[in-house]
Amino acid sequence: MSHESQAVVNDISKDELVENRPSSLKRWMRLLWRSKTGTVGLIIVVIALLVAIFAPLIAPYQPQEINPVNMLKPPFWMENGSMENILGTDNLGRDIFSRILYGSQISILVGVMSVVVAGFIGVTVGLVSGYFGGIIDNILMRLVDSFLAIPTILFALVILAIFDSGVFTLIIVLGVTNWVNYARLVRGEVLTLKERDYVKAAHSIGVSNFKIIVRHLLPNVISSFIVISTLSVATTIILEASLSFLGLGVQPPTVSWGSILSDGRDYLSTSWWLATFPGIAITITVLGIIFLGDWLRDVLDPRTQK
Amino acid sequence: MNNYFVRRILQIIPVLFIISFIVFTLVFVAGDPVSLMLPDDAPPEAREELRETMGLNEPFVVQYITYMGNMLQGDFGESYRFNQPALDIVLDRLPATMELAIFAIVIATAVAIPLGIWSATKQNTSLDLIATGAAVIGKAMPNFWLGIMLILLFSVTLGMFPVSGRGTAMHVILPAVTLATGIAAEMTRLIRSSMLDSLSQDYVRTARSKGLKDRIVVYKHAFRNSLIPVVTITFLQTSTLVGGTLITETVFAWPGLGQLLIQAVNTRDMAIVQASVFIIAILVILMNLIADILYRFLDPRIKYN
């Protein structure tokens, strides 16, 4: 990874980056501590992950637990609210707080896994396209152009209209519609990398194309990949919420932040808390991921800063 | 340069072919539309007859060629719900979406330009912090949730704006603001970084050392040059903008292309889906082409080869 690039990073000086190649956790933590937003981002992301993992332990109720005598109760600080349902209940008497905790599992799972799928397709296409060039590159890049011309959400909608939606379908669909950015990024990097001496040397002593791609090119694109995939988890969480909001994402009884929000929309005039809290959960989580991603970009890849 | 644009325009042809192929394949996989078009108690012979007349019994390749042939003549088939040519319905809805998008872009620009310039000229002050903070929050908020919150606050609680629909100027404000927020957030970040870049250039230093007024240096020298990436990237964001209108129109029951499309997807009205995807794709491709041309026009230093 070329840390010696020209750009100057936020509050970390260029010299420090070059000298302190992030080789140990301690150095990483020190770099992180320097960036306030990066630290905040990491804390939010860690909390969100812990919440998702330990939701069954933290949540006071089951997410599907219906309570007909306890419908549409407001949050605890309002009149009629109580500490038993701190964020209130929905039209079926289900506890909003518990639903949001459980919802984080699906939102984060879909966000992360679909980025893995998209990354796998995109990096493979980018490596092949950039390395081989010529007609292969031309065909793959027209494919990329085609995907770019259709808004991701539209593409996902059309596919979800055809196949039954569920968590697994959603991951695949969001992966298949989101790989283009990775392909473009990796291709661009490979185009410069393949002119480097070590790649030419490997080629001249008869190392196979496959080995050159996997051993010499792939490791060099990983850090840029990490940066955009982090930021991409944020946009995918929003995308999943949008699709679930439109009724084409996860199906009941599975809950995600988007589906809770969608349920709450019909009770907007009487029970504002139903649609408000899941949105806050999404916004804070996405904010944390953006902060963390921006920090990673500054540290890992100063060139993409612009 | 002319060569570049000729090649650039020629590249659009295979792209449109690939898109048509993807869309056709998806619809093909989606299965039999006959069951949607006829009532449940229709006799099997009637179904078979309709299938035959629609050419659904032909092999995939034949169907695709017929489909392409019709499409090149502007025929995307008929919507089974409206009993009208799909393309007509789609084009009918386009102005409403355009109206929303244009209002949103105007609002976004009006907010983002001053915010971006201020935060760049006053880098690391509290004003900068507020502007960049607002931008990042605007980016983190899901569009549809912001829309719902605006309805909750301004329509339900304060009663200032209508909850949904299209008609008066009051109707367009909330959906346009919703759609504008995401764009403004991205634009502010972009203008800020582009301005910071321009402000550190030699010509700005020269202008300052000549003793020019700060205002002139900022607006005349730095801002004009920092507009180049801003304008082109804004055009390149058409795809995101269209994606945003899909959701925003649904939240506000805005009778545009987005709302039509979501309804079409839910009712599996595939003729409408195909026609809208295609129209949107052409729109996005055209905007990207304009971005390319503008880029060249705004910055004569750029040479294409």
Automatic annotation (TrEMBL), chain A:
Transmembrane domains' residue ranges = 37-59, 106-131, 217-239, 272-296
User: What is the membrane topology noted in the UniProt record heading this document?
Assistant: Multi-pass membrane protein
Q: What Gene Ontology cellular-component terms does the record carry?
A: plasma membrane
Q: Where is this chain's protein located in or outside the cell?
A: Cell membrane
Q: What family is this protein classified in? A: Belongs to the binding-protein-dependent transport system permease family.
GO BP annotations listed: nickel cation transport; transmembrane transport
Q: Which UniProt keywords apply?
A: Cell membrane, Ion transport, Membrane, Nickel, Nickel transport, Transmembrane, Transmembrane helix, Transport
State the signal peptide span. none
Q: What start-end ranges are recorded for coiled-coil regions in this protein?
A: none
Organism superkingdom? Bacteria
Principal location: membrane
Residue ranges of every copy of the ABC transmembrane type-1 domain listed in the record: 104-293
Q: Name one Pfam family in it.
A: OppC_N
- Gene designation: gsiD_2
Name of protein: Glutathione transport system permease protein GsiD
TrEMBL record, chain B:
Output the superkingdom of the source species: Bacteria
Q: Which InterPro entries match?
A: BPD_transp_1_N (IPR045621), MetI-like (IPR000515), MetI-like_sf (IPR035906)
The primary location reported for this protein is: membrane
Q: Name one Pfam family in it.
A: BPD_transp_1_N
A biological process from GO = transmembrane transport
The annotated topology with respect to the bilayer is: Multi-pass membrane protein
Q: What UniProt keywords apply to this chain's record, in alphabetical order?
A: Cell membrane, Ion transport, Membrane, Nickel, Nickel transport, Transmembrane, Transmembrane helix, Transport
TM ranges are: 12-31, 100-121, 142-161, 167-185, 227-252, 272-295
Gene3D superfamilies given in the database record = MetI-like
Gene Ontology annotations for the cellular component aspect, listed alphabetically: plasma membrane
Domain called ABC transmembrane type-1: residue spans: 94-291
**Similarity-based family:** Belongs to the binding-protein-dependent transport system permease family.
Instruction: Report what the protein is called.
Output: Glutathione transport system permease protein GsiC
- Write down the species: Jeotgalicoccus coquinae
Gene name of the record? gsiC_3
